[in-house]
Amino acid sequence: MNVHNLGIGNSVLNQFVSELRDIEIQKDAMRFRKNIERIGEILSYELSKTLNYTTKKVTTPLGIKEVSVPDDKIVLCSILRAGLPLHQGVLNYFDHVENAFISAYRKHQDDNDDFDIVVNYLASPSIQDKILILVDPMLATGNTLEVTFEAIKKYGTPKQIHIVSVIGSEQGVAYVDNAFPPNTQLWIAAVDEQLNSKSYIVPGLGDAGDLAFGSKL
Ligand code: URA
User: Fold this and answer.
1) Strand ranges (E), the chain
2) pTM of the model
């Protein structure tokens, strides 16, 4: 897997990530969602440089211009519900893609912190020979992405997989590296050192779904 950690260099991307992490700025859920969306746009722009392009002629009011445009068939798949703002950010740039949604949640066993990832909804077009972009804002353990990939495989074999994420853990990135085909590309804004006993990324930002959409029971 190729890891493109775009937070390593200096750019405005790091401003957006720092606002996501900031416990005071997090109180503004609209800003939280918007920053994730903006990060999705930046990661998409970088990803777009790796796509296939064809030349086409565009007729302007004053003449004809040859331009190079991406021509890959892309399916964008997000995990509900935390993935929605990042999905929107990617969709802002790749507005012609097909979309897939999966609902996966952590099912905890009794009193301990262990959990299984349970998939209970998946809607997808065919992904056969297309580019599959998997969106997961918090790449904590990598289990959710693996389970998502296993579930969506019944819709075909993609020619290339890209994973788009905001913050990952070193452990999660290593896990995904092992679980996905070697030519998988990971586009990510930051990688943190640790996971806590509940498999949350530390320092991370907390619960992305709750911060974007409110806490749940
Ligand atoms: N999901 C989150 O929202 N945050 C984490 O740190 C890990 C998983």
Assistant:
1) 2-5, 53-60, 63-70, 74-80, 98-108, 115-123, 131-135, 138-139, 160-169, 185-192, 194-195, 201-202
2) 0.95
The confidence score (pLDDT) of residue 108 equals 80
Cβ of residue 97 lying under 6 Å from some atom of ligand 1: no
Q: If you take atom 4 of ligand 1, which residue's CA is the nearest one?
A: 207
Q: Is the CB of 204 under 6 A from ligand 1?
A: yes
Q: Which residue has the higher pLDDT, 119 or 189?
A: 189
> Does the CB atom of residue 161 touch ligand 1 within 6 A?
no
Res. 120 pLDDT band, cuts 50 70 90: confident
Is 64 part of any domain?
A: no
Q: Is residue 34 domain-resident?
A: yes
- The pLDDT assigned to 116 comes to 83
* Domain CATH for 132: 3.40.50.2020
Per the structure, the count of domains in the chain is 1
